[in-house]
Amino acid sequence: MLRFGLDEFILGHSKLRPLQKLVGLLLFWRDLSQSRGTRLRLALETLGPIFVKFGQMLSTRRDLIPLDIADELAQLQDKVPPFAYASVEQVIREAFGQEISQVFQQFDVEAIASASVAQVHFAHLPDGRPVAVKILRPGISVVIEKDIALLDSAALLMEKLWSDGKRLKPREVVAEFAKHIHHELDLMLEAANCSQLKRNFANSKLLLVPEVYWDWCREQVMVMERMEGTPISQVANLRAIGVDIPKLARDGVEIFFTQVFRDGFFHADMHPGNIQVATEGERTGRYIALDFGIMGSLNDTDKYYLARNFLAFFKRDYRDVAMAHIESGWVPKDTSTDELEMAVRAICEPIFNKPLKEISFGRTLLSLFQMSRRFGVIIQPQLVMLQKTLLNIEGLGRDLDPDLDLWATAKPFLERWMSEQLGWRSVVKNLRAELPIWGKVLPQLPRLLHQQLQRSTENSFSEELRGLVQEQQRQTRWLRLISLALALLVIIQLASIVALWHGLR
């Protein structure tokens, strides 16, 4: 922290600001000519892969951190040397209770990909099927727990001492990172994500998802179908093969909106490193999805308000954008609609001076989220993941086709989805979904109605009976009290007579 001058984040506190000059004199040898964002990035790279991964996640939280820092952290690359083959053999042995030669017919010694949490090898199953095997780094759980504890301590210090600490909620950011990294430590969860996405696109002509071979999956090992394709970043090679690049760009947008609005379950890490394009046979030109450790999900309410925001935005209906924000709970219910409408207009009007194809959905969504923060709300994590993914898809689409009109591609899909949710299609869909239940209930309706009436009568009788019993008990108590009082009077009278008789004698 001292080496890269990160103490400025702490010493910026009003109570500690006098120490800045003293620290500067004591550490005069430091080169602080670079920006704070650059120095933070270099510090994370020096600390190791987990901190690099944290920096990558932090770069997506543009709703929380200054943009200059977010832009710099976005440059982080998770390039990690692979771990030794002997460690791979050890993990396989612990996971299966067998040697690697007994589990796989053939296993490549060299890893084809390596990251901070896991690495991937090619192999063949005993029946000869080619597979990709993802293996967790040995001892990574212990390293991660220590690093997260260190990050949390730093976040606590930042929250207490930095002027913006409470507003930015650094401990919540660390907790969010911890949640995602812990999910990546269980490859059975990633396998389940992969299987769900494959099922969602089972009949799709746009996206290919590898099959999971569950019999060979463990918490620390994931085995899936080997996918053959060309990285989507190799545009020249794809064009040479005959792939329609503008169509590929449009397909990427459609895949994204299908995941979000149809399924409410989307790949949240769709950068070029996790996407390939099939280049053989009838599959040529289809997307291939890889790496399913980070997935996002949206409920029906979030999907509705997102679609409503996008459609209202492109209609320049700023009041409806404001109303959607309030009704969704993204801003407090007591927020002034007029003030929010003015804020939305200030964001959107400059954008509409550009052609629609130059308008960034992701940037617009980010601006709306930042505006929401001004009104006292921090956007939910799933929406932040959506915004991050949308920026990735936009960047990818426009790298493929600079003339891509994202709105022209997305608008029909959004309008159709809204119609399905609110129009006659929605009524038909709901009737179809409820029809089996009504088909079972309707024949039983007379009997169920009779039972309910009988139950109501019995309940009414029971209530009446309970009242009578209570009244009887109350009267019994009063009779006991009266009897006791009378007995006392009789005793007193007898005592008086006896006393009088003794007096006469």
Q: Number of helical segments? A: 21
Strand content: 5-15%
SS elements, strand count? 11
Q: Calculate the mean pLDDT score and round it.
A: 78
- List low-pLDDT spans: none
Number of domains: 3
What structural class do the secondary elements suggest?
Answer: alpha+beta
Shape: extended
Radius of gyration, CA atoms, in whole angstroms? 34 Å
Notable traits:
505 residues, alpha+beta, 3 domains, 5-stranded antiparallel β-sheet, 4-stranded mixed β-sheet, 21 helices, 11 strands, 8% strand, extended
Record the SSE blueprint.
Blueprint: H1 8-11, H2 19-26, H3 36-47, H4 49-59, H5 67-73, H6 85-96, H7 100-103, E1 106-107, E2 113-114, E3 118-124, E4 130-136, H8 140-161, H9 165-168, H10 170-184, H11 187-200, E5 207-208, E6 221-225, E7 230-231, H12 235-241, H13 245-263, E8 265-267, E9 275-277, E10 287-289, E11 295-297, H14 300-314, H15 318-328, H16 337-351, H17 361-374, H18 381-400, H19 406-422, H20 424-441, H21 445-504
Parallel strand pairs: 5-10
Antiparallel strand pairs: 1-3, 2-3, 3-4, 4-6, 7-9, 8-11, 9-10
Task: Please describe what this structure looks like.
The chain has 505 residues and is an alpha+beta fold. It folds into 3 domains: 80-226, no CATH class; 228-422, no CATH class; 436-471. Helix content is 61%, strand content 8%. It has 21 helices and 11 strands. The chain has helices at residues 8-11, 19-26, 36-47, 49-59, 67-73, 85-96, 100-103, 140-161, 165-168, 170-184, 187-200, 235-241, 245-263, 300-314, 318-328, 337-351, 361-374, 381-400, 406-422, 424-441, 445-504, and strands at 106-107, 113-114, 118-124, 130-136, 207-208, 221-225, 230-231, 265-267, 275-277, 287-289, 295-297. The strands form 3 sheets. Strands 1, 2, 3, 4 and 6 form a 5-stranded antiparallel beta sheet that branches. Strands 5-10-9-7 form a 4-stranded mixed beta sheet, covered by helices on one side. β2 (113-114) and β3 (118-124) form a beta hairpin. The longest helix is centred in the C-terminal third of the chain and has 60 residues, at 445-504. The chain starts with 7 loop residues before the first helix and ends with a helix.
